[in-house]
Here is the input.
Amino acid sequence: MSFQREIVKWYSINKRELPWRDTTDAYVIWLSEIILQQTRVEQGLPYFQRFLQNYPTVDDFANATEAQILKLWQGLGYYSRGRNMLFTARQIQENYGGVFPQKYEELVQLKGVGEYTAAAISSFSANESRAVLDGNVFRVLSRYFGIETAINSTEGKKEFTALANALIEGQNPSIYNQAIMEFGALQCKPKSPDCVSCPVQSSCYARANDRVNVLPLKLKKLKKRTRYFNYFVCQDGENLLVKKRIAGDVWQELYDFPLIETEKNYLETHESFLSELKNNFGSDCLISPITQQKHLLTHQTIYVQFFVLDNYIINFKKDAEIKWVSLAEFEELPQPKVIANFMNSNSIKQ
Here is the structure.
């Protein structure tokens, strides 16, 4: 019990003042938890505030369009989260009368709500005794108790879940869960944790055995895929040629420009690149490379090259989701971050 007591005591002194900590509204907590998945608090907070301002209730969220949600989500990445949230909001509107569920067993059935998120919402909104296990909690438990099992393995998941559930017994679930998550975020950080001032350092396995920089252990990730996107910027006065991305690939349902994907840099695949370019834009089209970007995703590295096109004709297939829109219309459409950054760089005349 001393471990839990010290963590909660630390939390009462050091916790950050965050807007979702002053409510038991399951909708608000859900909003914060989904937005903060794979996202630092500093980055996610403005998004949380904008979403809550635009959609103060789950019914408001459910009545939005997918394009509106993805536009507000723009820049956060993992766009499936935004799409899943809209699906879930509509599911709650239809099946729960717009009242966000608080019970773990109901929450875990919702799209995009896994075991961790269901535990967080149920414990924070209804004080249900469900232990949370996020990256911060895995790290604290692995270091303090000296668990050498990989946290992303099946065995590790079982071992950490059993420990977390044992530790939460007899605790105030809402306070304890928030305390251990915050402790991992601020004190027992991934790099350069503040072990000197740590209230549980005297009984920490990792500190005693020089394992702080080793734990927690993870199985090796798969090698990242490398891709090359060659975007073509076609402008006709105040209009741009844009393309809606199809399902089954990165940035699905978002809008970018017509592109040709190559296996290597376009200069290394020059002949095949020019051949496909002329097939899509005519044999007399002229291209001018203007800027390059490198975009890092969890499982992919995408090298992006932008070209301005002149003297072209459009030969793309009719089902290619390609159309002309005004600059003002494009501003309202959801875009991948690389496209939004390009538009904000003043490379396009507005």
Notes: The first strand starts at residue 225 and ends at 233. The chain has a mean pLDDT of 92. Residues 80-95 form the longest helix (16 residues). The beta strands are 225-233, 235-236, 239-244, 255-256, 259-262, 286-296, 300-310, 322-326.
